[in-house]
Structure formats: C-alpha cells, structure tokens
Amino acid sequence: MTDTPEARSASEEQDIPPSRDAALERIANRHMGFDTLRTRIGPIDFREVAVWEVKDALEAAYQAGLDAAGSTRVAAPNQPKSPRNPSAQ
C-alpha cells in the first residue's frame, strides 16, 4: 500500500500514537460496527449509526482516557443505559 493522503488514517495525519489509534479503532468496531478507521475513499467509509451507538463509543473513549490517566469514572445519577432497541419501548 502506498503512503498517500488517501491511504492514511486521520490519526496518522494528527500524529496520534499507535496505541491510542488501536484503542479508538477497537471502540469504533465494538460500539459502532466499523471494521477500520482508515480512509478508503468511497461509500465503504460511510454508514449510518444510531445516536446511542455514538454515545456508547464516546463514553468508552472517555473511560479509556480516564483509565490511561489512572482516574476512575464518577457515575452520573439517574442515567439510564442507552437503548438497544428503541422500537421495543
């Protein structure tokens, strides 16, 4: 693979360390179903995601940052779990 701007991920362009890039990719895969965060220039780079998937991914990334910094998350009171199937409510 050539090292063109199209072939590089956004994190490579921003000099994000590989370990952080890998963590972001795991989170994107687990919570939003993305196979990779690499730009592939085409329709495969796009997919619809539910707002709760984005919220779950952001929470996971936030928690990963806290864990890396040696902190613990303080749970917010009265925060329901993200719905997995809103039509079932």
Fraction in beta strands: under 5%
Helical residue percent band: 40-55%
Structural class: mainly alpha
Termini Cα gap = 47 Å
Q: Total helix count?
A: 3
What is the overall shape? Answer: flat
What order do the SSEs take from the amino end to the carboxyl end, as H and E? HHH
Largest sheet, in brief, is: none
**Which stretches of 5+ consecutive residues score pLDDT under 50?**
1-5
- Give me the Rg, rounded: 16 Å
The overall strand count is 0
Average pLDDT, to the nearest integer?
76
Brief descriptors of the model:
mainly alpha; disordered N terminus; 3 helices
Write the topology of this structure:
Layout: H1 10-13, H2 18-32, H3 51-69
Helix pairs in contact: 2-3
Organism: Myxococcus virescens
Biased composition (Polar residues): 79-89
Protein name: DUF6900 domain-containing protein
Brief summary of the model shown:
Pfam families: DUF6900. The chain has 89 residues and is mainly alpha-helical. Helix content is 43%, strand content 0%.
